[in-house]
Amino acid sequence: MLKKVTWEITPQRTALIIVDMQKIFCEPDGDLWVPSSRDVIAPIRELAATCRANGVQVIYLRHVVRGDGSDTGRFRDLYPHADAQFARANPAIEVIEELRPEAGDIVVDKLFYSGFHNTDLDAILRMKDIDTLMVCGTVTNVCCETTIRDGVHREYKMIALSDANAAMPYPDMGFGEVSALDVQRIALTAMAYEFGEVTTCADMTQRITAAEAD
Amino acid sequence: MLKKVTWEITPQRTALIIVDMQKIFCEPDGDLWVPSSRDVIAPIRELAATCRANGVQVIYLRHVVRGDGSDTGRFRDLYPHADAQFARANPAIEVIEELRPEAGDIVVDKLFYSGFHNTDLDAILRMKDIDTLMVCGTVTNVCCETTIRDGVHREYKMIALSDANAAMPYPDMGFGEVSALDVQRIALTAMAYEFGEVTTCADMTQRITAAEAD
Fold first, then answer.
1. Exactly one of A136, A143, A144, A201 is catalytic; which is it?
2. What is the pTM assigned to this prediction?
3. Which distant-in-sequence residues (6+ apart) come within 8 Å of B137 by Cβ?
4. A11-213: what fold?
């Protein structure tokens, strides 16, 4: 097994990015329910508590649009009901109760998949002198991975949490059906080879608490 | 089989983006040789000729760095020999002879995977009023797909050419080895579901020539 990079962790220069853990994706009656999102709620909640207790900034991303069609060109082409599904006024865009943001956490709304594109995320991170980002949430290969790709291009040290990213299966788009497990396996492999570090929540918990105890 | 989008083609508003068909990736003695890149040379050459004859702009991307270490932070962390391998002065960064750029083509050098990040690609496309981009080259899921993700965020109508993108296999990064075929299959599926249209060179040739004949 090959591991290309292991970033040194300074809690005050590290953030946990919780991607799109919104009702629309994470509740069984959500329009775009990702079943495996249930499995990542407990690990994310636990790691977020560790972060808050050890000086690691917790940041939530939410996918939210105006709802009037003015900001959803290509996104609406790909998801025809996006204007209604992701409208600011729709309660489905809220973060699930189990992971409700706490005082001191930061929420960044984005119009598309990436947490960096046309948002103030980069400015917030620079103001706080944060250079290392742990990414978790839904879905592994789209909003999480696009944020990771955008982050490494901006010179952040990116970390994908292998047991706190949830993937979904795909229907046959011309190349056969793809299982959520295959999506997850290949996304994590490519991220570990091309974009940064991939590790578990337990490993990060250990490294954060060890660094903070120093 | 599901197809989410089929963009209408206006040749004058369309470009062919040929990604990283450089000697380092495409020649058997290249440091980072991608064996399947040999299979996409002929389709790309043929489609590029059709584009030049029908008013579709041909644009090459090349991965090139200064070579002095000043512009390769995270990229060097992931590819420790990047400064030598991708240096401007290294002939390995040139486009392979079989696809040598012709008069009227445009070459855009980039520092990392994305054709858009910190380059003038977006400005060039806007100046030419181009809104639709066909993407081909190496490797499917990294430089090609990152450019596609960045393009759709900028509201371009993105097209991945299924038979003109070359993928490579991955070693075991903790989740088992991954074949080039699996990388290709899953990248094309995710691109067709999340980021734009996926189709063949033959289909695009037909649509470009039909539109130009109108």
1. A143
2. 0.98
3. B17, B18, B19, B20, B21, B40, B44, B61, B143, B144, B164, B165, B166
4. Rossmann fold (3.40.50)
